[in-house]
Amino acid sequence: MIFLNFFISGISLGSIYAIIALGYTMVYGIAKMLNFAHGDVIMVGAYVCFYAISRYGLNPLLGVVIAMAACTLLGIIVERLAYKPLRQAPSLAVLITAIGMSYFLQNTALLLWSSNPKVFPSIIGRGAFKLFDGALSVSHVTVLTIATCLVIMIVLSLFISKTKLGKAMRACSEDKGAAQLMGINVNATISLTFAIGSGLAAIAGALLCSAYPTLMPTTGSLPGIKAFTAAVFGGIGSIPGAFLGGIMLGVIEIFAKAYISSQLSDAVVFAVLIVVLLVKPSGLLGKQLQEKV
Amino acid sequence: MKKILICTALVLAMTSCAFGAAFKIGGTGPLTGGAAIYGNAAKNGAEIAVEEINAMGGDVQFELRYEDDTHDAEKAVNAYNALKDWGMQVSLGSVTSKPCEATAAENFADRIFALTPSASSAAVTEGKDNVFQMCFVDPNQGSASAQYIADKKFAKKVAVIWKNDDVYSKGIRDTFVEKAPELGLEVVSETTFADGNDNDFSVQLTDAQNKGAELVFLPMYYQPASLILAQAQAMGYAPKWFGVDGMDGILTMEGFEKSLAEGVMLLTPFNADASDEKTKSFVAKYQAKHGEIPNQFAADGYDCVYAYKEALELAKATPDMSAEDICTKMIEQFTTMTFNGVTGENVKWAANGEVTKDPKGMVIKDGAYVGLD
User: Nearest C-alpha of chain A: how many angstroms from B370?
Assistant: First the structure.
């Protein structure tokens, strides 16, 4: 029973990683860039949500919607100002810019909202479902997070495979130059990708802070890195891979903490990552792309 | 990712010096960052003391300046150097342990006397004859907590959750775990976490619960403690909670559900509810100025400035003396004098800089700190 309890803890932690990883992987899959500022967009989303709910007393759902709108806007602005001018630049330059953007957002948040930690009001309360006469408990936030993950995953997959815009995205991801020749507006498509990714970040932020309710300007950065690891683990660029990678990372982390050592849990997590990458360099569900020379 | 460049706001504590000559007293502390509650509290407490002393117009007048170190050792040294350039004669060290270990080494090398309000790790004073503490040194906090829990018979089986990358947390945990068996306390579960990577305490709490801990000892700052309390409630685990001075501040976190901390006990030298004149006047002034009840850090800051006043008067020091001369005199005074402040009566210092005073047990009741005794 204790084993199952730890398993559930692992899934709830993993579901948070998964929902953040979805944003990472989507932007990488389409724009072929690692948006290291993703974790910080999550933080901004959480702050907007916090102010909407706590300060202005709005309905939590409305709070999340406002945060999504704010983050989408932020994503578009960030993309326009920082990434768009570098469309032709080498990918290393874009990567460094993304890291810079991450610091910029953190420090702006520090100035705007100060560093005092705030306690995020859970968007669905702190209750839990009790199973087997209370021997197992699954918190509402976990159930909501997993459900949200699945919905986002399905909608995103459908959007990318079935719609015209999705088709444009896939085309851009495969070959930007050829896509342009086919009459696809590559710039607009990539901007759209960022807008969607940032909107998802707001949802991730609200769920992250509902599960672990401290909100600080650095709240997004470490979960962001863990989620990035999860995305790599599952195969970066693959949407189901992000979900699988996130859940597995969470479960491994909790098991390592519980059965090996609470001090070594991160070492174990990354050791597993290294093994996976050695055996399957593109991640669990990643596509092996043949580069034609 | 952690070395965040923070626009350091230069905070100048303006003091009126009627006679032009005043002792320059400087300190560093986290005025922004995750530990900002401590830094600002200590600074506000010290400011109130300086205002009072300057208003009395005695021989000893102060000019106080606080610099932000964001609870980062490297920035603390930069902040310390800024204070040295400004002409600091006596120092308040740093507010938190890690940065203070760094600035204390500088204090020692530069022969500038330091009295830290709240940096409690043993390494702060170790091997330095001119660095003193106003708060308990960590090992004492650990053994005092174990003693208190055993004396009051709160529990037989205890669990400890501590932060393994923090000297403060480790120092307290080490002596607590060492002392507990002597007092008949059984440490049934001991688990750790580390900075930032751990927001999930389900494993630690499940372990404590399964091993039947009646009391969980939390030697840590209030921010992870708030997460632990929330997660324990979610899983329906309700042991007794016992914290140390870092727990102070949990009630002033924005958005914190105070009911979560109901019944949390902590050992701290300062009780804002105490009925003596000194505490009452300090609490009233602090509340009027900052709109909140002062915590232990504010009281430590306040006491530091008064301890300096007493020592400087006894030593007949004058503001035109060099920092080094003052340092020699201060070492003499602090090792011999007895000080009465808001954080304790008959406060004495040993030659190694550690303080002796009685801790007070506090409990959080209806969203406020109440004395246990």
Answer: 23
Q: How far is A124 from chain B, CA to nearest CA, in Å?
A: 13
Q: Is B346 inside any structural domain?
A: yes
Q: Number of Cβ pairs closer than 8 Å across A and B?
A: 112
Taking any CB pair shorter than 8 Å as contact, residues of chain B touching chain A are 1-2, 4-7, 32-34, 36-37, 70, 164, 191-194, 196-197, 199-200, 202-204, 206-207, 210, 223, 226-227, 230, 233-236, 253-257
Contact A116 B37 (CB under 8 A): yes
Residue from A9, A111, A269 whose CB has the most chain B CBs within 10 Å, to mutate? A9
Give me the count of residues in chain A.
Answer: 293
Report ipTM for this prediction: 0.77
pLDDT of residue A292: 53
Total domains present in chain B? 2
Cα B36 to Cα B167: distance, rounded to the nearest angstrom? 18
Report the pLDDT averaged over residues B153-167. Answer: 87
Min Cα separation A255/chain B (Å): 9
* DSSP codes of every residue in B5-24: -------B-----TTS--EE
Yes or no, beta carbons of A254 and B256 under 8 Å apart: no
Asked if B280 and B208 sit in the same domain, the reply is no
Residue A216 included in any domain: yes
Regarding whether B345 and B326 lie in a shared domain, the answer is yes
Q: Looking at the structure, do residues B259 and B157 belong to the same domain, yes or no? A: yes
Candidate from B34, B192, B253 with C-beta closest to A263: B192
Whether residue B281 is found in the same domain as residue B353? yes
- Number of domains into which chain A is organized: 1
Q: Which of B268, B284, B310 is the last residue of a domain?
A: B268
Note the pLDDT tens digit of each residue in A222-252: 888 888 889 988 888 888 899 999 999 999 9
* Domain assignment of residue A66, yes or no: yes
Dihedral of the alpha carbons of A110, A112, A117, A121, in degrees to the nearest 10: -140
Expressed as residue numbers, the domain containing A205 is 2-220
Query: From the CB of residue A191, how many other CB atoms can be counted at a distance below 10 Å?
Result: 18
Q: pLDDT tens-digit profile of B163-222?
A: 888 888 888 999 899 888 888 888 899 888 887 657 788 888 988 988 888 999 999 888
Residues of B within 8 A of A211 (CB-CB) are: 199
Residue A187 has pLDDT above 70, yes or no: yes
The chain A residue lying nearest B35, using CA atoms, is A116
Look at residue B238 and tell me whether its pLDDT is greater than 50: yes
Q: Do A216 and B253 touch (CB under 8 A)?
A: no
Q: Is the same domain home to B332 and B238?
A: no
Residue B54 resides in a domain:
yes
Q: With respect to residue B367, please indicate whether it lies within any of the assigned structural domains.
A: no
Angle between helices B73-86 and B97-110 (to 10 degrees): 40
Q: Are B323 and B242 within one domain?
A: no
What is the domain-level CATH number for residue B183?
A: 3.40.50.2300
Of B4, B197, B223, nearest to A222 by CB-CB distance is B197
Which structural domain, as residue segments, surrounds residue B102? 23-136+275-358
- Same domain, yes or no, for B231 and B286? no
Decide if A261 is inside a domain: no
- The burial class, CB within 10 Å (0-12 / 13-18 / 19+), for A151 is exposed
Residue B178 lies in a domain: yes
Both B202 and B122 in one domain: the answer is: no
Residue A183 has what DSSP assignment? T
The stretches of chain A forming alpha helices (DSSP H) are 2-31, 38-50, 60-78, 91-113, 140-162, 164-174, 176-181, 186-211, 221-234, 239-255, 265-279
> pLDDT-based confidence at A265, cuts 50/70/90?
confident
Residue A268 lies in a domain: no
Rounded to an integer, what distance in angstroms lies between the CA atom of residue A265 and that of residue B105? 34
